[in-house]
Design a protein that fits this description.
single chain, mainly alpha, two-stranded antiparallel ribbon, 6 helices, 58% helix
């Protein structure tokens, strides 16, 4: 489990579970794997476009929710999260025997590592160009 932290919320003391990043990556990938298993049991046949639509709408949100805050940095956590998509791409029978990179290319999907990097670049661009209204911006010097 996580550590308990005491937080004042709306004037009252509340206990909140604080997880480490690796624990969050594990919980997110477990939940995504459960949903992927449900998809696998619910459909007898899976083609590429169907998998992409189901994966993008049901599985990926669990892996990417709050990724700016908890993005995995350890190789173990990155592999844990990426293995969910690796498993999902094997559900399409016509490309099952291809390598992971070839399956991603056939389905026109980016890897989750690439998506996290792309999202980080977008967030950095927004901060650097003052798209966010942030009073104490750590990336720029005050004049």
């Amino acid at each position: 489990m996580g550590n308990l932290a005491e937080v004042y919320e709306f004037g009252s003391l509340a206990e909140v579970h604080v997880y480490e990043i690796d624990k969050h990556a594990e919980l997110a990938s477990n939940k995504a794997n459960k949903i992927l298993g449900m998809i696998c049991r619910s459909f007898d046949f899976m083609d590429g476009p169907m998998l992409v639509q189901l994966s993008n709408s049901l599985v990926r949100p669990h892996l990417e929710y709050g990724k700016v805050v908890w993005s995995p940095i350890n190789k173990k956590d990155v592999n844990l999260v990426e293995n969910v998509q690796r498993r999902a791409t094997k559900l399409v029978p016509s490309i099952k025997n291809l390598s992971y990179e070839e399956r991603l290319e056939a389905l026109k999907l980016p890897s989750l590592v690439y998506r996290r990097l792309y999202g980080d670049l977008i967030e950095t661009f927004r901060c650097m160009h003052s798209i966010y209204n942030v009073e104490n911006n750590l990336l720029t010097k005050d004049s």
